[in-house]
Specification:
The chain has ten helices and 16 strands. It is an alpha/beta fold. The protein folds into two domains: about 190 residues, Alpha-Beta Complex (Quinone Oxidoreductase, Chain A, domain 1); about 140 residues, 3-Layer(aba) Sandwich (Rossmann fold), CATH 3.40.50.720. Strands 3, 5, 6, 7, 8, 15 and 16 form a seven-stranded mixed beta sheet that branches. It has a six-stranded parallel beta sheet with strand order 11-10-9-12-13-14, sandwiched between helices. Helix 3 packs across helix 4. The longest helix has 14 residues. The radius of gyration is 20 Å and the shape is globular. The model has no long low-confidence stretch (mean pLDDT about 95).
Length: about 350
């Protein structure tokens, strides 16, 4: 089958950073689904793994952890899906990705594709939706019932990207929080407001000053999606006593952070990495499939909207490399996708 992979870790300026390859079509066994891929999306994790894959690989590393497609076959232990079912999912970063004609994925981390979305629009949503959902409702334990969130607020730092775009919606439309989003360009400010943010402030300015300008001395929750070390002191300034913070971006070895800043306020700090459940085969691994099905229901009801903003054409090495360049440029709003001919 046709696929796009990495044989050498190279920068996006090198045309051979991604290559078109032919690899054997896999077979579904156990709890795996064999999915005929219709559309894929690209996330920062793709660019990071491309650069960390190594050099002169004997077998190509297939990237891609956002997919929408149709179940082609099921393993002998599958009970949740059958051939012909339309599905969407983010997959497992420890396994081959979905930048290929067919893809194997454990059925427990798969959801039913929203009937109201095209394959392209659906492919944009799994990784970011799972990340935002887990960060908000599990890591920070936000009550999904708006009745329990009167007077509570959340600051979402870097809200114009893929995770931020759906996090704003979930925080506002599901939890009923007052949402303060950050963005630094006119187009991202406009986008955050379209997603449902109550206020949009500039993360290139001191967070405390920016929050005060929209009427907030402190916030109940902070979801930091960019520049963890860069915003460390700012988050310490604006989080309320006994507040909760969730982080998704690593700090570099040369960017130490001081946890002691948060001790006086008894702040809870947590990490969100949506591949944890699949990577460690946790007992609650199937919860990701459950939450994707719940998100699917919300998309179909019009409660949530997809965040696809760009289409990069057919899945091949050249187009996928252009998509990687876009992500690495730091100018991405929402999500981008590529399609596979059927």
């Amino acid at each position: 089958m046709k696929a796009v992979g990495v044989l050498n870790s190279l920068p996006v300026t090198d045309a051979s950073a991604l290559v078109d390859v032919d690899i054997p079509k896999p077979e579904a066994q156990g709890r795996d689904l064999l999915v005929r891929v219709h559309a894929v999306s690209v996330n920062p994790v793709d660019t990071k793994i491309r650069m960390a894959a190594g050099s002169r690989l004997e077998q190509p590393r297939i990237l891609g952890w956002d997919c929408a497609g149709v179940v082609e076959a099921v393993g002998s232990d599958c009970t949740l899906f059958k051939p012909g079912d339309e599905v969407f999912y983010a997959g497992d970063v420890t396994r081959a990705g979905c930048d290929s004609e067919f893809h194997l994925v454990d059925e427990r981390i798969v959801g039913r594709k929203p009937a109201s979305l095209t394959f392209e629009d659906a492919a944009a949503m799994p990784l970011t939706t799972v990340t935002a959902w887990e960060a908000l409702f599990e890591r920070m334990a936000i009550n999904p019932d708006p009745a329990g969130n009167q007077g509570k607020s959340i600051l979402i730092i870097g809200a114009g990207g893929g995770v931020g775009s759906i996090a704003v919606q979930l925080a506002k439309k599901v939890a009923g929080l007052t949402v303060i989003a950050t963005a630094s360009r006119p187009e991202t400010v406009k986008w955050c407001k379209e997603m449902g943010a109550d206020h949009v402030i500039n993360h290139r300015e001191p967070l405390a000053d920016e929050c005060k300008q929209v009427g907030f001395n402190t916030v109940t929750y902070i979801l930091c999606l960019v520049g963890t070390a860069q915003h460390w002191h700012g988050m310490a300034d604006v989080i309320q006593p006994q507040g909760r913070i969730c982080l998704i971006v690593d700090t570099e070895s040369n960017q130490p952070v001081n946890l002691n800043l948060f001790k006086p306020k008894s702040v809870t700090i947590s990490w969100e990495f949506m591949f944890t459940r699949s990577r460690f085969q946790t007992p609650d691994m199937a919860h990701q499939g459950v939450l994707l099905n719940e998100a699917s229901r919300m998309f179909e009801a019009g409660m949530l909207r997809h965040t696809r903003t760009e289409h990069f054409g057919e899945l091949n090495a050249a187009n996928l490399l252009n998509a990687h360049r876009k992500l690495e440029s730091g100018t991405m709003i929402g999500k981008l996708v590529l399609s596979l001919p059927q």
